[in-house]
Amino acid sequence: MHADLKDFIDDLDRRGWVRRVAEPVSPNLEIAAVTDLASKSPGGGPALLFEQPTGFDMPVAINLFGSLDRICLALGVASLDDLAREIDKLMTPPAPTGIFDAMKMLPLIGRLTDLLPKTVKDAPCQEVVKPNGSLDELPILTCWPEDGGRYITFPMVFTKDPDTGVRNIGMYRMQVFDGRTTGMHWQRHKGGAQHYRIAERLGKRLEVAVALGAEPALCYSATAPMPEGLDELLLAGFLARRRIELVKCRTVDLEVPAQANIVLEGYVEPGERRREGPFGDHTGFYSLADDFPVFHLTCITMRRKPIYHTTIVGIPPMEDVYLGKASERIFLPLIRKTIPEIVDMHFPAEGIFHNLVLISIDKRYPGHARKIMNACWGLGQLMFSKCIVVVDKDVNVQDEREVAWVAGTHVDPQRDIQFTLGPMDDLENASDLPAYGSKMGIDATRKWPSEGFTREWPTRVVTSEEAGKRAMAIWARVAGAPKTNPGRDNRS
To answer: Burial level of 400, CB count in 10 A (0-12/13-18/19+)?
Structure first.
């Protein structure tokens, strides 16, 4: 696995997966505009390294995880489904039948122990220490013309619960107000916001540390929808196949990734708010300005030759699509532990993660699809799902065209659509009220007589297996087509 961000970039370089931009490009709108073009290219476009951001001698790395190949490389797997199977195996080891089986499980137990982070005394992220450092020294981007200012967009924000000391790592945008202060966009449902609420209740300052450009596994883990109370560093350790190294901050009582490129140390005061936004968000629209807590900088530490790692969000597809795909595959085994009837799940890019969820199930009883909808709305961050479409297990939910076809032919709107009310994502802009609105579930499964469908359900139109094989052989000779059948199999 990659030791740090530079190691990952060097690997991308060797594979021809990164494009170095040698000419000066401004952090004010220009880098974002180039990155937007790259992100919209087939397959997510290349990773980008801007070697001369105008006015700075610190290179800017962006779109590093913006393809399936690169997110798999970052997580050390050939495919995300391989990783999902590995997690499933780790969560459900076979029960030992004897001493020899038990001994075979020892490496698995050791693997779990290796997930724990470890603290070191000396760290690359503290090669340079600047107690009076300024955010103006960093090539922080202005991404979109109507943004409220410059934004730190890939920060790993470290806090601790003031009551319990439990750590949280989250990714929350930070608008730069001046050289020593930023906004802290803690959405109300997130762990960082909860720590801040506790600190406010106690009348205490909450210490904060922000890591920029850590090892790839940790960069991803900070974005992951971890269950409350679970340390993101455990996931990062699992993905990195090693213990994540931490180092004590210089001015706050927090530990940060030793291999990070830049660390911002500071605090937020109870009761202090400042207007933040607007911001061109991952919905493809500007999120509205609002009042948020203020981060005060106390120290900057960094490597001697740091890389500023950032990202942009906007109209999909962009880099965050591939980070979301990783979460989709990684957390599917965990979701199945609670809802085992789920076969597969897909979050289309255009659905912005939570606006559209496609789920296939092993349907076992009348009303099963509705049970799945309600279970998902009560499970972690799936509670934000605005529209859930449930199909049978023989439908490939990764094929959005197939799902649209099946939904269009299987759904009676009056019978098969369910509405409910509940919490919404803070960035949901269509609801009448902030963070609260309506949700829709669509049952696109085949309907049973026990569900009131008294007619015969129609059968799919497909050719016979024998004729299909013959046709493919002929087509391969005539048109030079692949010798595998790209069509649907004989499913009804």
So the answer is: middle
